[in-house]
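Researcher: Next entry: SDR family oxidoreductase (Lipingzhangella rawalii).
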Amino acid sequence: MTHRIITGARGLVGQALTHHLTEEPGTLLAIDTTRDEAASTTAGEIHQADCRSADFGDLVADFLRGASRVELFHTAGFVPEPTHIADIDTDAFRALVDDNLTVAYAALRTTARIAAENEVPGALTVLGSVGAIRAHRYKAAYDAAKAGVASLVRSFALEYGPYGISSRLVAIGPIAESASTAQDGAYAEPLVRLVPLHRYARVAEIAAAVAAFGSAAFDMTNGHTLTLDGGLSQQLRPLDIERPPGCLDCKPTAPCGRPHGFD
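Model: Predicted structure:
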């Protein structure tokens, strides 16, 4: 039987993934660092534990007894407010790295070690960000931490692959329902237009994709990354400022009338 672990189960993606996976065969352990008595989930209890704590290790060890496969979905993390580099002091930088990189390392290390010791194969799937390869303006510490997470996944892929444990990363772009998207205001429409699909990913489709990517069907993607950003990170320039073929004098402010995307 597949035993699935979700960290950050009260977060935006973690909560959606928790609800999604309750529909799948197997057992589920939902974990978060916060306790919210008013919140509910179809998964039942959400256990309170920090991935860096002994409590987390005890929860994982107890949960994996009798498992034939483990699937960890590490969704925990913290997205900061936009900040100029000069305004991020070393303590704030360190805290953001700790929340997004050290916690990921602890969750991966504990789960991989216990699974390997008990000869339980499976997958470690970690939520990352397209900011690991394409910098956000004003989120330097966050992007640096997420780049570190991508490196961690590759390291775990090499060391724990021989134990039958496949590690993988999901790089996520803007989410339609996120708090940061809600704050875009007047920037919302032009920002969405930068995405080749002309929309942001919905949290429900992210949850479905992450669940599928963490399954046995994708075990051969060990060390690799699935990017869910609608094509945002695949372009050199946005369409609004890319000169189309044959339009030598065409400008975004004075298009020639051909259907090449300015309107």
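Model: Note for the record: Confidence is low (pLDDT under 50) at residues 37-42.
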